[in-house]
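Hi there,

I know you've been waiting on this one. I reran it after we fixed the sequence typo, so this is the corrected version. Both the input and the resulting structure follow.
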Amino acid sequence: MGTSSVHTRKRMLVILESGGYSDFMQSIISLGGSIVAPDKPDVSFIQQFSALVRKYLAENEERRIILIVGGGGPARAYQQAYREISGGSHSEEQDWIGIMATRLNAQLIRGVFADLCPDPVVTDPTAVQKMSGRVLVAAGWKPGFSTDTDAVYLAEQFGADRVINLSNIAKVYTDDPRTNPDAEPLDTISWKDFQRMIGDEWVPGRNVPFDPVATRKAAELGLKVICAAGGDIENLSRLLRGEQFEGTLIGE
C-alpha cells in the first residue's frame, strides 16, 4: 500500500467529540477465542452476540461485518497436550494446532450466521476481496502470528480504518494486572509505546492484547485498533454505533 493510500484512509477516520467513532458501514471485528470458547463454546455469549449483530445490521442495509475468530481454550488445551507428549515446543506445530482450533470456532460462528454469510470461512485473508453476504467469517491463516494479524490483513483488503479487538479484558494495561497490582488501565496508547510494551517476538499461545506481528502491520497501515471486553454486549453496541465506549484505543 502506498503512502497516499494510507493518508486517504486516515482522512476517512472521524473521531467524535464523545470519544467514539463514526458509524462505519463496514466493521472488522477480531473475536477472541477466549470469549467464543473459553474452554468449550460459550452458548450464552454467542447467542447474545448474534442477536446484537443481527439487530445492528437490520438498522441499516448498507452495514457489513467481518468476523475473525480465535482459537480460545481448545487451542491452548491441544497445544499443551502437544508439548507434554512431544517434550518440545516447536513453534510451527503449535501454531498449526492453534490455527485448526480457530477454524473449528469460525465454522461454528459461520453456521450461526449462515443466513447472512453465504461465503465459506476465509483461511487466507490476502485472497479475498469481496463478500457476498452481510457477514463474513475468517479463521487462522498460517504459522507466525495470531488471528489478530489476519484481522489487520482483512482491514487492508477491505479498506477499513479500524479493527475492533474483542477479548476477555476491558482495557489494555501498563502491565499484566494478574501479576502486578500496580498495573493501570489505559484509555489510549500510541503504536510506538504499545510495541515497546509487548515486544517483537511472536510466541504461540502467548496472551497479549494484540500480537506483535499484527501490531507492526497495523502501525505501518496507520490503523486504529480498539481493544474492549467482548462479553460486554451493551458496550459493543455503543462502540459499533460510534457512541462513547469503554476500552483502549491503540493508534497515533
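Quick highlight: Residues 3-250 form a domain with the Carbamate kinase fold (CATH 3.40.1160.10).

Best,
R. S.
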